[in-house]
TrEMBL record:
InterPro entries the UniProt entry points to: Calcineurin-like_PHP, Metallo-depent_PP-like, Metallophosphoesterase_sf
Protein name: TMPPE metallophosphoesterase
Domain of life: Eukaryota
Residue ranges occupied by any Calcineurin-like phosphoesterase domain in the UniProt entry: 205-380
Gene Ontology molecular function: hydrolase activity
Matches recorded under Pfam families: Metallophos
Transmembrane segments: 12-30, 42-64, 76-96, 116-138, 165-183
Annotated source species: Sapayoa aenigma
UniProt keyword terms in alphabetical order: Membrane, Transmembrane, Transmembrane helix
PANTHER family reported for this sequence: TRANSMEMBRANE PROTEIN WITH METALLOPHOSPHOESTERASE DOMAIN, TRANSMEMBRANE PROTEIN WITH METALLOPHOSPHOESTERASE DOMAIN-RELATED
Amino acid sequence: MISFKQLPLEAKAAVAAGVVFFSMMLSRSYLAEKLDLRTRHWLLRLQMALFANILMSMGSLHVWRSTVTMFTRSSAASSFCFMLWKIAVVMFLVLAHSSFFTLPFLVAEEPYFFSLAAYTCLGAYIILIFFLFTLGSVEQAYKFLARRDAKAGTGNKNRTAMKPVLAVVLTVVLTVVGLLNASQPPTVNSVEIPVHKLPSTMNNLKVVLLSDIHLGPTVGKTKLAMIVRMVKALKPDITVIVGDLTDAEAAIIRPAVEPLGELDSPLGTYFVTGNHEYYTSDVSNWFELLKSFNIQPLHNENVKIVSPKSTYDWFCLAGVDDIEADVLRYSGHGMDLKKALRGCSSEHAIVLLAHQPVAAKWALQERPDINLVLSGHTHGGQMFPLNAGAYLLNPFFVGLYKVGQNTFVYVSPGTMYFGIPMRLGSRAEITEIILRSP
């Protein structure tokens, strides 16, 4: 029987990742009610950082072997330039791995340069791994189809050497493109949505939708102030924030949140939790902070939005807690649609705020009379090659969907980004929704 010491490094990493993943599941289920919120918060962050780094160690070994070890027998291996290259690869991998530890330790009013560099390297790491794997698979398919083995000649060796070079070049190019794309202000996307039973006096009511701002290690006060200025320029009747506003505790990042106090929509500004609010384990303090800025959290509750032209005309705006609260067993929280829609009848239009598209799907299965659901969470995949996974994991991916005869779902691609300051195949968005009365 093979002992643990005899296993290759990749197998050891896989075993270690499995152990950490099991401990995460154990913490979520059996320890959830035995540990206080702060302890659970730090334990979860530590477990997630360890799990991610152990998984990445397998990829990092492949990166090192492909970009360094492969060239150690070449004539350039003893050169000064190759030494600099090895140092650069080591620094790149160290920064990528350290990105997961910036969240609990390096969050302030504005991002630290180290955090920006670390998360940029993480994004480049993901792209590089994808291209190394893809080009390697293409190479193996070519060998199989051509009935050649790995020792078929110098031409084959040259192709093998070109694989990491091409992967690195593509990674650098896409990283620069992704950084430039994400550094641009969010685009303003105007969408007209017919809302069944919306009073005629509320025709053309303007709702501005924000989602997934992710105040934290790479998004700070300057970017939030820019978003607020853009929202105010649109002069919305209502502003809604559908979760993942933050990745940090309220006390730590409070100065960065201050621009939200400038939002002054006449019919109110409303907020529902996303999964990342629960990862902070500080939801109650966030609710109090938002209330101090005149932003109303909808904690499985609803409000009547009354027409400025007639006090008899109104629609129901409801919000549910994010479904991750149930997974984390976050006391006093969890998606409760019945409570959220209490008093909302099908005689009036119903608009629901639910962070995750999965929650939107569940809500519509339970209450088909909901007319419009506003969600976020997916980021539109945020960056290549993660787009495909986000598309497959969510019933609604990005943009406007019609469900049945009188129901629509709109999924925001996010107003900023999470961690990695890059956008590839997606664009940050502030959504201007014009509600139309049928």
